[in-house]
Write a structure and sequence with these properties.
The protein has three helices and 14 strands. With about 210 residues, it is of the alpha+beta class. The chain folds into two domains: about 45 residues; about 140 residues, Glucose Permease (Domain IIA). Strand 2 and strand 3 form a beta hairpin.
Length: about 210
Protein backbone atom coordinates (compact mmCIF):
# COMPACT_ATOMS: atom_id res chain seq x y z
CA UNK A 1 0.00 0.00 0.00
CA UNK A 2 1.18 3.53 -0.81
CA UNK A 3 0.65 6.68 1.23
CA UNK A 4 -1.90 9.30 0.23
CA UNK A 5 -0.48 11.91 -2.13
CA UNK A 6 2.31 9.65 -3.37
CA UNK A 7 1.12 9.19 -6.94
CA UNK A 8 2.27 12.61 -8.28
CA UNK A 9 5.79 11.88 -7.03
CA UNK A 10 5.88 8.33 -8.35
CA UNK A 11 4.21 9.41 -11.59
CA UNK A 12 6.72 12.20 -12.14
CA UNK A 13 9.62 9.80 -11.60
CA UNK A 14 8.09 7.28 -13.98
CA UNK A 15 7.41 9.86 -16.71
CA UNK A 16 10.93 11.26 -16.37
CA UNK A 17 12.36 7.75 -16.73
CA UNK A 18 10.25 6.96 -19.79
CA UNK A 19 11.05 10.27 -21.47
CA UNK A 20 14.79 9.94 -20.85
CA UNK A 21 14.80 6.31 -22.01
CA UNK A 22 12.92 7.10 -25.21
CA UNK A 23 15.03 10.17 -26.01
CA UNK A 24 18.27 8.21 -25.53
CA UNK A 25 17.21 5.77 -28.27
CA UNK A 26 16.80 8.66 -30.71
CA UNK A 27 20.35 9.95 -30.29
CA UNK A 28 23.60 8.54 -31.61
CA UNK A 29 26.19 10.83 -30.07
CA UNK A 30 27.23 12.11 -26.65
CA UNK A 31 23.63 13.17 -26.00
CA UNK A 32 22.52 9.54 -25.90
CA UNK A 33 25.06 8.84 -23.16
CA UNK A 34 23.77 11.76 -21.09
CA UNK A 35 20.18 10.72 -21.61
CA UNK A 36 21.00 7.11 -20.71
CA UNK A 37 22.52 8.41 -17.48
CA UNK A 38 19.34 10.42 -16.81
CA UNK A 39 17.32 7.26 -17.51
CA UNK A 40 19.24 5.43 -14.78
CA UNK A 41 18.69 8.35 -12.39
CA UNK A 42 14.97 8.23 -13.23
CA UNK A 43 14.79 4.54 -12.36
CA UNK A 44 16.58 5.17 -9.06
CA UNK A 45 14.23 8.05 -8.18
CA UNK A 46 11.13 6.02 -9.00
CA UNK A 47 12.32 3.14 -6.83
CA UNK A 48 13.16 5.59 -4.04
CA UNK A 49 9.66 7.11 -4.17
CA UNK A 50 8.04 3.67 -4.14
CA UNK A 51 10.02 2.72 -1.04
CA UNK A 52 9.65 6.07 0.73
CA UNK A 53 5.88 6.30 0.23
CA UNK A 54 5.16 2.75 1.37
CA UNK A 55 2.38 2.51 3.91
CA UNK A 56 2.09 -1.02 5.33
CA UNK A 57 -0.87 -2.16 7.37
CA UNK A 58 -0.16 -2.22 11.11
CA UNK A 59 -1.87 -4.08 13.96
CA UNK A 60 -1.41 -2.34 17.34
CA UNK A 61 0.09 -4.47 20.10
CA UNK A 62 -1.10 -4.60 23.70
CA UNK A 63 -4.35 -3.30 25.17
CA UNK A 64 -6.45 -0.27 24.25
CA UNK A 65 -4.94 1.81 27.06
CA UNK A 66 -1.36 1.12 25.88
CA UNK A 67 0.07 4.05 23.89
CA UNK A 68 1.61 2.99 20.58
CA UNK A 69 4.31 4.82 18.69
CA UNK A 70 3.12 7.59 16.34
CA UNK A 71 6.09 7.04 14.03
CA UNK A 72 8.70 4.63 12.76
CA UNK A 73 12.21 5.55 13.83
CA UNK A 74 14.51 5.93 16.81
CA UNK A 75 13.75 7.41 20.22
CA UNK A 76 16.12 10.36 20.61
CA UNK A 77 14.78 11.89 23.82
CA UNK A 78 12.55 11.11 26.79
CA UNK A 79 11.87 13.81 29.35
CA UNK A 80 9.02 14.00 31.84
CA UNK A 81 5.94 12.99 29.79
CA UNK A 82 7.51 13.82 26.41
CA UNK A 83 9.05 11.37 23.96
CA UNK A 84 10.77 12.41 20.71
CA UNK A 85 11.10 10.01 17.77
CA UNK A 86 13.35 10.73 14.78
CA UNK A 87 12.35 9.32 11.39
CA UNK A 88 15.27 8.63 9.08
CA UNK A 89 14.92 8.75 5.31
CA UNK A 90 14.49 4.95 5.11
CA UNK A 91 11.68 4.80 7.70
CA UNK A 92 7.97 4.75 6.91
CA UNK A 93 6.83 8.37 7.28
CA UNK A 94 3.10 7.83 7.82
CA UNK A 95 2.17 8.83 11.38
CA UNK A 96 -0.50 7.21 13.56
CA UNK A 97 -2.58 7.99 16.63
CA UNK A 98 -0.98 6.67 19.86
CA UNK A 99 -4.40 6.21 21.51
CA UNK A 100 -8.05 6.29 20.50
CA UNK A 101 -9.01 9.94 20.54
CA UNK A 102 -10.98 12.91 19.28
CA UNK A 103 -9.01 15.66 17.54
CA UNK A 104 -9.64 18.85 19.51
CA UNK A 105 -7.24 21.23 17.79
CA UNK A 106 -4.74 21.33 14.92
CA UNK A 107 -2.18 24.13 14.85
CA UNK A 108 -0.08 24.17 11.65
CA UNK A 109 2.93 26.48 11.45
CA UNK A 110 5.40 27.00 8.58
CA UNK A 111 9.08 27.16 9.50
CA UNK A 112 12.76 26.70 8.72
CA UNK A 113 15.19 24.10 7.42
CA UNK A 114 16.98 22.76 10.51
CA UNK A 115 17.53 18.95 10.53
CA UNK A 116 14.71 17.26 12.46
CA UNK A 117 17.04 15.54 14.96
CA UNK A 118 18.40 18.93 16.09
CA UNK A 119 17.05 20.26 19.39
CA UNK A 120 16.31 23.59 17.68
CA UNK A 121 14.15 22.00 15.00
CA UNK A 122 10.98 23.25 16.72
CA UNK A 123 11.39 26.36 14.52
CA UNK A 124 10.74 24.11 11.49
CA UNK A 125 7.43 23.56 9.75
CA UNK A 126 5.28 21.67 12.23
CA UNK A 127 1.79 20.46 12.96
CA UNK A 128 0.69 20.50 16.59
CA UNK A 129 -2.27 18.19 17.23
CA UNK A 130 -4.17 18.10 20.51
CA UNK A 131 -6.04 14.84 21.09
CA UNK A 132 -8.65 14.11 23.75
CA UNK A 133 -8.37 10.51 24.94
CA UNK A 134 -10.20 8.50 27.59
CA UNK A 135 -7.12 8.92 29.80
CA UNK A 136 -6.51 12.64 29.35
CA UNK A 137 -5.15 15.07 26.79
CA UNK A 138 -2.39 13.91 24.44
CA UNK A 139 -0.29 16.24 22.29
CA UNK A 140 1.48 15.20 19.09
CA UNK A 141 3.79 17.50 17.16
CA UNK A 142 4.90 16.54 13.65
CA UNK A 143 8.13 18.35 12.75
CA UNK A 144 9.40 18.48 9.17
CA UNK A 145 13.09 18.08 8.40
CA UNK A 146 15.63 19.68 6.07
CA UNK A 147 14.21 18.25 2.81
CA UNK A 148 10.99 19.42 1.13
CA UNK A 149 9.36 20.30 4.46
CA UNK A 150 5.86 19.21 3.71
CA UNK A 151 3.47 17.87 6.34
CA UNK A 152 0.38 16.18 4.90
CA UNK A 153 -2.54 15.87 7.33
CA UNK A 154 -5.27 13.24 6.95
CA UNK A 155 -7.37 14.57 9.83
CA UNK A 156 -9.42 17.59 10.84
CA UNK A 157 -10.70 19.03 14.09
CA UNK A 158 -13.47 16.81 15.41
CA UNK A 159 -12.14 13.63 13.77
CA UNK A 160 -12.53 10.50 15.90
CA UNK A 161 -9.64 8.05 15.58
CA UNK A 162 -8.98 4.55 16.79
CA UNK A 163 -5.61 3.61 18.28
CA UNK A 164 -3.03 3.22 15.52
CA UNK A 165 -5.12 4.96 12.85
CA UNK A 166 -3.26 7.04 10.25
CA UNK A 167 -3.17 10.79 10.90
CA UNK A 168 -0.81 12.01 8.17
CA UNK A 169 2.76 11.90 6.92
CA UNK A 170 5.89 14.04 6.68
CA UNK A 171 8.24 14.30 3.69
CA UNK A 172 11.28 13.50 3.68
CA UNK A 173 13.10 13.49 7.02
CA UNK A 174 11.29 14.33 10.20
CA UNK A 175 10.41 13.96 13.85
CA UNK A 176 7.37 13.26 16.01
CA UNK A 177 7.12 14.50 19.60
CA UNK A 178 4.43 13.16 21.95
CA UNK A 179 3.30 14.49 25.31
CA UNK A 180 1.38 11.68 27.01
CA UNK A 181 -1.51 12.04 29.48
CA UNK A 182 -0.77 11.93 33.20
CA UNK A 183 -0.50 8.41 34.59
CA UNK A 184 1.65 6.84 31.88
CA UNK A 185 5.09 5.25 32.22
CA UNK A 186 7.38 4.81 29.23
CA UNK A 187 7.99 1.26 28.04
CA UNK A 188 10.88 2.20 25.72
CA UNK A 189 14.19 3.99 26.17
CA UNK A 190 16.47 6.37 24.30
CA UNK A 191 17.95 4.82 21.11
CA UNK A 192 15.22 2.16 20.93
CA UNK A 193 13.72 1.51 17.50
CA UNK A 194 9.95 1.83 17.31
CA UNK A 195 7.27 1.05 14.72
CA UNK A 196 4.31 3.38 14.13
CA UNK A 197 0.97 2.05 15.30
CA UNK A 198 2.53 -1.12 16.67
CA UNK A 199 5.29 -0.64 19.25
CA UNK A 200 4.01 0.12 22.76
CA UNK A 201 5.82 3.24 23.94
CA UNK A 202 4.01 3.73 27.27
CA UNK A 203 1.63 1.98 29.65
CA UNK A 204 -0.67 3.09 32.42
CA UNK A 205 1.05 3.38 35.81
CA UNK A 206 1.28 0.10 37.69
CA UNK A 207 -0.07 -2.00 34.82
CA UNK A 208 3.19 -3.83 34.09
CA UNK A 209 3.64 -4.72 37.75
CA UNK A 210 0.08 -6.03 38.04
CA UNK A 211 0.51 -8.19 34.93
CA UNK A 212 3.65 -9.74 36.41
Amino acid sequence: MLAKGSFPWIGAGTLFTIAAGYASTQMDDISSIILAFLFIIGIALTIFFLVFFRDPERIPMGDEDDAVSPADGKVISIKDRTICIFMNIHDVHVNRAPLACTIKRIDYRPGGYIPAFNKDSTVNERNHVIMETEYGMLELTQIAGILTRRIVSYISEGSKLIRGERIGMIRFGSRADVILPEGYEFAVGVNDKVIAGQTIIAMRNGKEKKEK
